[in-house]
């Protein structure tokens, strides 16, 4: 077996997107020797794709905004499935995290009085998204990246070594978490993409910040990195996933040409005045306001148009309903034959404002359509359709610290769960990354500070991880050899068709059958060439994670017999209040002898559990009438509105 | 429209390599990166290509197409005639790792040499006030996606390996300009721009601006203004006199 | 390092035989620049030292002879508005006070620098085309470090543009006919307007107007000036070339009228 490079750190962060970088900054600032591992180059993480903005109730544009309003919006968007504690922390801390970015050098767009400008977005009552044109994610990642460089400069001044206390392992993929004999985190095992050399990083605390799972779907806004690594690593290390059935399909992805299908069209287009139309030219969203939102959205086009200028006296346009509602509406329009030529609907901003204004407000959208689709969005409408965008489900964590059920394992960002419930509001992910990235970094630092002894890596586990990693180079035992690219395409197609935006019992059963077949085939994957920067090999290893996560999604989706947020069942089309308090928990199925059921892609079990009830003072922030749409009567017995009603 | 396109792709590593000819299916609306992915899936599964977002936002898939530095994901096939042989090579300014992937660590090393953003002492988070007109110049520079195409095309390092030591390249001179124009930055990088980052080596031949996929006017808006600021400090007796007098008062 | 292992052939970089793989006609712009600049230098050199046909009776003074400060200007009474004090010598142009500075203004201009570094010095001839030099230090040493004096030549060029404007306006007043407008007047006027365009679109001008400020919001007037110059500045290359053309055209027109080869057409008066 080839030699393994060894390192030792206090905190290891896996993933260098917004959450990972923020966690690393926090851990380093708390005095921990910190390492960040990322699959791509430093600063290329998927966070750069975020466009619209970062939600924080600073009240710069509308002074009525407050954390309570933000909290209510978040819970409503998630259909009251969110971890109320996470939503509370998020709403309260997001402004501080945004202001902190300014101290790192971020330059958001400004209001006339010099504060951070905020824009409207789907599901947010007030203009709330701090933004830089439509490239907010880039600003966020660059600011964090530059903060890390600044910390390294401090360390260089103090020690002569830039990487003395904070090092970025770029283009390095972690394939397995390492635990000690008691099951506590002891480090991670991975390989350098450039050389294929193995690397073992010992660390008593690991923060997972690996992002989502979108690459398991054919039409997605996610990059190749989004293979559910964190979800799979956590499962295999013994942690639990929750809410895996909730996958957000962003309503507006590009649909044409095929090579760019799925690439995101920012919600900012609608926030700034763009409207959805079907092939009849009808603004169809007015027909799709669901019961739970009745009365909160404009009922006529005139009122909706007035709202952009006067939000006090008008209700917002239904084009800005939460993403799950808009995605389903578009899906229905297309199915009923009112779609655009390439199977989407029209998103029109050209007829709504002057060309110069569009270019100023949405420069990268203009650029994207011009360069990739040869469409001038200042002259003609865009064609858009739903695209897999975000997974609400993820690693079960403690809201305050990001701690998972495995000692020493923390998670933040998209790979963690709870914050967004069944559906995430636009703009809440960038603030999620900052708030919970920081908290996970803090949690990890405190965990390490409180340790009595450092967990020790089991050599046997390192050897096993190395053997699993090189397995795809060996000829398959069955005689047939599978091409990893073909396997990935088959998986993506299957997930898109069967576990996509609309689901049924029969489809889930079929999906699980097909996953079984794929599980057999993945054992026979054979890759050509050697280990130096070999994308075929990298994909073969990622496939393990994609399959595991696919199974978690399909199994959870089969069990949840209702429709809510990012989970729509054709056979159970309605919200079911009894399901609100139930959470589906995914964990590995152990064999009788205690070992994993399948070393390549272990089997998972999904079981329902009870969700913790919301704290009373938070529950009291909502009108009883609204809660009654989501809660069973006995859950609301303690609501103050109930007393008033009785009196 | 689907046709069979002809491609020449460089394959190899630091020890050597060569251009390989391939015939690949090309469909309507595709970009060069799509073709390389098809090559991976059907002919050369271990072809090394660096990429991420495939939407021109992350700056990972930098390479040279027909000898010109480009993003693979933003070069549409429709700009080539169907019988044109498209040549794809790695960036030629940085050491090659494998196939189309190069070692761009030069850039990350240079990033560390620029003094970081330095806010005024005592300004608490949340109290930052900046006017839109004051942030716009730096905002343009912050559009940079760090694709390093400007670093690749700049002849100062492309044609002179020995200059890598003393020249930060357009990307990091742009970063210096961004911070110097930041309305709340209090550090001074003007002398460093000339002495440490090698601004004087730039001969403003504008290749960095030509290749920038974000359309940042690197030369006109960052490099020349920085040269002028250096002239203020170093080469302009009148400006020196003015500073001296105003300091006395 | 051997001469062959330079730049793109340096050890570690991808081994590609061709020095450049560009398939377009990348040599065309530098070649055209060379031809254009040489043509101007030859024409301007000949005319600067010709010392005749620089003033037409219609009171048109060619910019190549403005201000006319040589004792030789006495041959054309009315051409010299600023006195005559330089010796009349075949090697001293009549406008020896302005021509060297105008030349230096253009020589140190950020656009022309690009143009001649690319076309004459091939450094580089075109993007991603290797340059032929073994060493490169850019503008860090003498003489190229003198490029930093560009702003001083801008100040002088602005003064000279004022003189050219004065010449153009003065030409409207005919010694005998009073206010007149001839084709020559329009030629002078267009030329001087474009000269202002070139001079004010200068990068140094942009810096002086407001580019050196960090807080535009505290200097609204200078911010507006900067915005205005910035807009002109995007066309600096255009002005650089068009003024070479109008300078030659204006001079040629004045010369031909002065020689009597053509007659100026009177439009008004």
TrEMBL record, chain A:
Q: Does the keyword Endoplasmic reticulum apply?
A: no
**InterPro entries, A to Z:** FAD-dep_OxRdtase_2_FAD-bd, FAD/NAD-bd_sf, Fum_R/Succ_DH_flav-like_C_sf, Fum_Rdtase/Succ_DH_flav-like_C, SdhA/FrdA/AprA, Succ_DH/fumarate_Rdtase_cat_sf
Q: Where is the Fumarate reductase/succinate dehydrogenase flavoprotein-like C-terminal domain?
A: 489-611
Alphabetical list of PANTHER family matching this protein: SUCCINATE DEHYDROGENASE 2 FLAVOPROTEIN SUBUNIT (PTHR11632), SUCCINATE DEHYDROGENASE [UBIQUINONE] FLAVOPROTEIN SUBUNIT, MITOCHONDRIAL (PTHR11632:SF51)
Start and end of every FAD-dependent oxidoreductase 2 FAD-binding domain? 10-430
Organism encoding this protein: Isoptericola halotolerans
List UniProt keywords, sorted A-Z.
Flavoprotein, Oxidoreductase
Q: Does the keyword Translocase apply?
A: no
According to UniProt, the name of this protein is Succinate dehydrogenase subunit A
The lineage's top-level taxon is: Bacteria
From TrEMBL, chain B:
User: Which cofactor does this sequence's record say it needs?
Assistant: [2Fe-2S] cluster; [3Fe-4S] cluster; [4Fe-4S] cluster
| One Pfam family recorded for the sequence | Fer2_3
Record-annotated 2Fe-2S ferredoxin-type domain positions: 5-92
Q: In which pathway does it act?
A: Carbohydrate metabolism; tricarboxylic acid cycle
Keywords, sorted A to Z: 2Fe-2S, 4Fe-4S, Iron, Iron-sulfur, Metal-binding, Oxidoreductase
Which Gene3D superfamilies did the record assign? 3.10.20.30, Alpha-helical ferredoxin (1.10.1060.10)
Identify the domain of life. Answer: Bacteria
What does the similarity note say? Belongs to the succinate dehydrogenase/fumarate reductase iron-sulfur protein family.
Give the protein's recorded name: Succinate dehydrogenase / fumarate reductase iron-sulfur subunit
What organism is recorded for this protein? Answer: Isoptericola halotolerans
Automatic annotation (TrEMBL), chain C:
Q: Which UniProt keywords apply?
A: Membrane, Transmembrane, Transmembrane helix
Q: What are the transmembrane regions?
A: 26-46, 91-112, 152-172, 178-199, 238-258
Full protein name: Uncharacterized protein
What organism does the record attribute this protein to? Isoptericola halotolerans
């Amino acid at each position: 077996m080839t030699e393994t490079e060894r390192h030792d750190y206090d905190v290891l962060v896996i993933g260098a997107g917004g959450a990972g970088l923020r966690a690393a900054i926090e851990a380093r600032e708390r005095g921990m020797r910190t390492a960040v591992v990322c699959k791509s180059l430093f600063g290329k993480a998927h966070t750069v794709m975020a466009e619209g903005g970062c939600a924080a109730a600073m009240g710069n544009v509308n002074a009525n905004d407050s954390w309570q309003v933000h909290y209510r919006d978040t819970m409503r968007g998630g259909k009251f499935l969110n971890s109320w504690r996470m939503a509370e922390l998020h709403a309260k801390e997001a402004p501080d995290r945004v202001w902190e970015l300014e101290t790192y050098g971020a330059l958001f767009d400004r209001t006339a009085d010099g504060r951070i400008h905020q824009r409207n977005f789907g599901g947010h009552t007030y203009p709330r998204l701090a933004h830089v044109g439509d490239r907010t994610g880039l600003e966020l990642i660059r600011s964090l990246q530059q903060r890390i460089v600044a910390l390294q400069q401090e360390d260089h001044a103090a020690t002569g070594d830039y990487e003395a206390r904070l090092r970025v392992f770029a283009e390095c993929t972690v394939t397995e978490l390492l635990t000690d004999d008691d099951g506590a985190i002891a480090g991670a095992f991975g390989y350098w993409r450039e050389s294929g050399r193995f690397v073992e990083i010992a660390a008593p605390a690991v923060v997972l910040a690996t992002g989502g799972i979108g690459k398991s779907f054919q039409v997605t806004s996610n990059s190749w990195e989004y293979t559910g690594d964190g979800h799979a690593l956590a499962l295999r290390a013994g942690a639990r996933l929750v809410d895996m059935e909730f996958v957000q399909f962003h309503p507006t992805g590009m649909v044409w040409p095929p090579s760019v299908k799925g690439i995101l069209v920012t919600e900012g287009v609608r926030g700034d005045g763009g409207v959805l139309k079907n092939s009849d030219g009808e603004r169809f969203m007015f027909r799709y306001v669901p019961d739970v939102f009745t009365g909160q959205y404009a009922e006529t086009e005139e009122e909706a148009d007035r709202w952009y200028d006067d939000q006090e006296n008008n209700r917002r346009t239904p084009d800005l309903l939460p993403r799950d509602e808009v995605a389903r509406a578009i899906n229905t329009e297309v199915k009923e034959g009112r779609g655009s030529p390439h199977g989407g609907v029209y998103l029109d901003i050209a007829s709504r404002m002057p060309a110069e204004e569009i270019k100023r407000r949405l420069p990268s959208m203009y650029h994207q359509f011009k360069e990739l689709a040869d469409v001038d969005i200042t002259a003609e409408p865009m064609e858009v359709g739903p695209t897999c965008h975000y997974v609400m489900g993820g690693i079960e964590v403690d809201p305050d610290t990001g701690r998972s059920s495995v000692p020493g394992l923390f998670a933040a960002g998209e790979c963690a769960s709870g914050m967004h419930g069944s559906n995430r509001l636009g703009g809440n992910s960038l603030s999620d990354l900052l708030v919970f990235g920081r908290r996970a970094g803090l949690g990890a630092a405190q965990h390490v500070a409180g340790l009595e002894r450092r967990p020790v890596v089991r050599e046997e586990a390192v050897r096993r991880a190395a053997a699993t990693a090189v397995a795809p180079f060996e000829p398959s035992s069955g005689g047939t050899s599978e091409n990893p690219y073909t396997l990935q395409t088959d998986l993506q197609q299957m997930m898109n068709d069967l576990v996509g935006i609309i689901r049924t019992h029969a489809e889930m059963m079929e999906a699980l059958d097909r996953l079984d077949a794929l599980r057999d085939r993945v054992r026979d994957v054979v890759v050509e060439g050697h280990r130096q920067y070999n994308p075929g090999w990298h994909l073969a290893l990622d496939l393990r994670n994609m399959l595991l996560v696919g199974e978690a999604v399909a199994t959870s989706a089969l069990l949840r017999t209702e429709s809510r947020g990012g989970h729509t069942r054709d056979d159970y089309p309605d919200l079911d209040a009894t399901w609100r308090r139930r959470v589906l928990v995914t964990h590995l199925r152990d064999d009788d002898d205690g070992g994993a059921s399948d070393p390549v892609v272990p089997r998972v079990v999904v079981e329902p559990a009870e969700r913790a009830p919301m704290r009373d003072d938070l529950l009291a922030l909502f009108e009883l009438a609204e809660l009654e749409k989501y809660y069973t009567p006995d859950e609301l017995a303690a609501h103050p509105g109930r007393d008033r009603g009785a009196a | 429209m689907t046709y069979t396109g002809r491609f020449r792709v460089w394959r190899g590593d630091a020890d050597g390599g060569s251009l390989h000819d391939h015939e690949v299916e090309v469909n309507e609306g595709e970009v060069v990166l799509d073709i390389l992915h098809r090559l991976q899936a059907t002919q050369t599964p271990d072809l090394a290509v660096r990429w991420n977002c495939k939407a021109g936002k992350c700056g990972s898939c930098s390479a040279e197409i027909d000898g010109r530095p480009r993003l693979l994901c933003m070069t549409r096939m429709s700009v080539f005639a169907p019988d044109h042989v498209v040549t794809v090579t790695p960036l030629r300014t940085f050491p090659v790792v494998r196939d189309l992937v190069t070692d761009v660590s030069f850039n990350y090393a240079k990033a560390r040499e620029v003094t970081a953003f330095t806010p005024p002492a005592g300004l608490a988070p949340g109290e930052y006030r900046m006017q839109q007109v004051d942030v716009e110049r730096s905002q343009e520079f912050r559009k940079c996606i760090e694709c390093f195409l400007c670093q690749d095309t700049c002849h100062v390092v492309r044609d002179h390996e020995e200059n890598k030591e003393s020249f930060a390249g357009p990307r990091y001179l742009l970063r210096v300009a961004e911070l110097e124009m930041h309305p709340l930055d209090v550090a001074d990088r003007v002398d460093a721009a000339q002495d440490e980052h090698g601004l004087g080596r730039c001969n403003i031949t504008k290749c960095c601006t030509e290749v920038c996929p974000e359309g940042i006017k690197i030369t006109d808006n960052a490099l020349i203004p920085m040269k002028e600021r250096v002239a203020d400090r170093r080469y302009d007796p009148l400006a020196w006199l003015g500073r001296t007098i105003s300091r006395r008062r | 390092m051997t001469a062959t292992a330079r730049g793109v052939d340096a050890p570690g970089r991808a081994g590609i035989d061709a020095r450049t793989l560009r398939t377009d006609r990348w040599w065309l712009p530098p070649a055209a620049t060379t031809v254009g600049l040489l043509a101007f230098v030859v024409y301007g050199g000949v005319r600067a030292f010709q010392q005749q046909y620089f003033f037409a009776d219609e009171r048109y003074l060619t910019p190549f002879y403005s201000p006319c400060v040589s004792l030789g200007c006495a041959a054309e009474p009315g051409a010299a508005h600023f006195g005559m004090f330089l010796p009349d010598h075949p090697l001293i142009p009549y406008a020896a006070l302005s021509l060297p500075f105008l030349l230096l203004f253009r020589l140190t201009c950020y656009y022309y620098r690009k143009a001649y570094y690319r076309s004459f010095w091939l450094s580089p001839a075109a993007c991603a085309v290797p340059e032929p030099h073994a060493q490169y230090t850019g503008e860090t040493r003498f003489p190229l470090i003198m490029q930093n004096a560009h702003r001083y030549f801008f100040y002088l060029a602005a003064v000279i543009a004022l003189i050219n404007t004065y010449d153009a306006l003065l030409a409207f007043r005919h010694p005998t006919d009073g206010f007149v407008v001839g084709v020559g007047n329009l030629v002078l006027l267009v030329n001087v307007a474009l000269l202002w365009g070139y001079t004010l679109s200068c990068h140094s001008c942009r810096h002086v107007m407001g580019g050196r400020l960090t807080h535009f919001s505290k200097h609204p007037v200078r911010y507006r000036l900067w915005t205005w110059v910035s807009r002109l500045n995007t066309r600096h290359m255009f002005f650089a070339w068009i003024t070479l053309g109008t300078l030659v055209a204006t001079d040629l027109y004045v010369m031909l009228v002065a020689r009597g080869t053509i007659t100026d057409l009177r439009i008004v008066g």
